[in-house]
């Protein structure tokens, strides 16, 4: 049973989520509630929790602060973020910290409860190894030349091994973990076992047969752990449904993925938001190589893809550049690359429906990214057009056609949208917020804010928190 803790400063939200959602149908049980991050940490110390649902904006200790602390104290804890739809940057930070999903409160309707829990349950199953001890795991293998492992990357469902294998003399057959099995037989019987296993691959979805060499003088525990680690790292990238047999040596180098550097993540994001990769094979292949070179774990890769899709849709969903759809689950890099290919085709088709070249579309995207990532600077259409080597009048025309707003309208809009997040999720002063979104005059900022929202910043904060 997956034990669940709900953390939200709104008692009605906590009670509603606890009582309304069909937890039992997904082998989940709500074992506690907390009204802020500090109380949540106290609860985590007192009893085990497998899954924590946490709000981001809370008194005493915010959800982001709670995630930082919980990640250090309880690295196995799964975290899902409860959020308002405006919390774009905070969701990105939560995903970077390891959240496996997020739930927008405004979308919590009865007909979606089952879908939300099914999605979370699927992700937990996909990121969690079922630990199964092998008998005599400290015994050293001295008799067997190879070990054969049939591994399924499908973590959504349980597969029962039903095929009848010919019994072999001195055969060792173990279940390594859920949906993963291993065999070892004397050398003179290996050919027969290999052909039987190869023929059985079509019985198990997304399966691969590993032929593992250099196994002698290793304990069975070492062999089992090597298979587990290989499955979670290298196999994720090596899997190909058209080539399901993979010879691999236990002498192979470090199979663990390294912690990605911020500059590597930023480089991938910059490449994604450039237009050329969707129009030219060479740039597409460079982007794919950048992804693969990081060797991210599945959870890390999911977080990166989520942040890319969310940022794209945040910037372009309401424009002629269009929305892109998230890949909701994947078990291998093969599936991820198929999704990237489809996404590239969709972006390319949208671009081709405009009257502008890929280079001009790329320039407008760059302008949007520059302004978005440095709101404190007072960028102008004239300055950016010069930086991008385009005439001011043509830049202004292209920008309005592609983004649906003039540059000045767009600049004001995104600054006000960012200020809304600050107002709802921080206790900072109006002057502090105004400076962070590029306004040095608090009164002028308040006037702009009221023109776009109909409310003063203080009224918006009071109303937003009151509704919450």
TrEMBL record:
It is found in: Cytoplasm. Its main location: cytoplasm. Pfam families: HTH_18 (PF12833), Response_reg (PF00072). Transmembrane segments: none annotated. The keyword Cytoplasm applies. GO terms for molecular function: DNA binding. The keyword Protein biosynthesis does not apply. Residues 365-463 form the HTH araC/xylS-type domain. Keywords: Cytoplasm, DNA-binding, Phosphoprotein, Transcription, Transcription regulation, Two-component regulatory system. The modification 4-aspartylphosphate is found at residue 55. Residues 3-120 form the Response regulatory domain. InterPro entries: CheY-like_superfamily, Homeodomain-like_sf, HptR, HTH_AraC, HTH_AraC-typ_CS, Sig_transdc_resp-reg_receiver, Tscrpt_reg_AraC-type_HTH. This is DNA-binding response regulator. The lineage of its organism: Bacteria, Bacillati, Bacillota, Bacilli, Bacillales.
């Amino acid at each position: 049973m997956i034990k669940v803790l709900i953390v939200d400063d709104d008692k009605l939200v906590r009670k509603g989520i606890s009582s309304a959602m069909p937890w039992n149908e997904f082998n989940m049980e709500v074992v506690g509630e907390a009204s802020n991050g500090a109380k949540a940490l106290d609860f985590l110390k007192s009893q085990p929790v497998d899954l924590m649902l946490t709000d981001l904006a809370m008194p005493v200790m915010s959800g982001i602060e709670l995630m930082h602390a919980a990640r250090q104290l309880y690295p196995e804890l799964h975290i899902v973020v409860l959020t308002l739809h405006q919390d774009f940057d905070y969701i990105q930070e939560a995903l970077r910290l390891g959240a496996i999903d997020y739930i927008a409160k405004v979308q919590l309707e009865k007909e979606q409860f089952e879908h939300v829990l099914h999605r979370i349950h699927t992700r937990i199953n996909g990121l969690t190894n079922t630990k199964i001890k092998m008998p005599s795991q400290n015994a050293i293998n001295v008799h067997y030349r190879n070990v054969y492992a049939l591994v399924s990357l499908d973590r959504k469902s349980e597969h029962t091994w039903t095929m009848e294998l010919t019994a072999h003399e001195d055969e060792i057959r173990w279940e390594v973990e859920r949906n993963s099995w291993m065999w070892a037989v004397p050398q003179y019987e290996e050919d027969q076992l290999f052909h039987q296993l190869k023929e059985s691959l079509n019985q198990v979805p997304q399966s691969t047969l590993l032929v593992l060499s250099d196994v002698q003088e290793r304990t069975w525990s070492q062999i089992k752990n090597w298979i587990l680690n290989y499955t979670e790292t290298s196999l994720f990238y090596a899997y190909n449904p058209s080539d399901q047999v993979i010879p691999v040596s236990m002498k192979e180098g470090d199979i663990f993925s390294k912690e990605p550097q911020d500059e590597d993540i930023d480089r991938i994001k910059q490449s994604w938001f450039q237009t050329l990769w969707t129009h030219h094979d060479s740039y597409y292949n460079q982007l794919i190589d950048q992804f693969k070179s990081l060797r991210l774990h599945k959870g890390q890769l999911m977080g990166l893809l989520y942040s890319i899709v969310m940022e794209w849709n945040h910037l372009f969903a309401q424009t002629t550049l269009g929305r892109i759809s998230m890949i909701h689950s994947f078990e291998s890099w093969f599936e991820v690359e198929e999704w990237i290919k489809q996404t590239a085709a969709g972006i390319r088709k949208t671009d081709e429906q405009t009257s502008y070249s890929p280079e001009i579309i790329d320039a407008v995207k760059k302008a949007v990214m520059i302004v978005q990532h440095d709101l404190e600077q007072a960028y102008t259409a004239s300055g950016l057009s010069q930086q991008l080597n385009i005439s001011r009048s043509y830049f202004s025309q292209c920008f309005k056609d592609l983004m649906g707003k003039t540059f000045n309208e767009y600049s004001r809009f995104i600054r006000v949208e960012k200020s809304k997040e600050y107002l709802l999720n921080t206790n900072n002063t109006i002057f502090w917020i105004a400076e962070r979104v590029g306004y040095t005059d608090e009164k002028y900022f308040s006037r702009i804010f009221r023109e776009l929202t109909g409310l003063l910043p203080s009224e918006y904060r009071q109303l937003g928190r009151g509704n919450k």
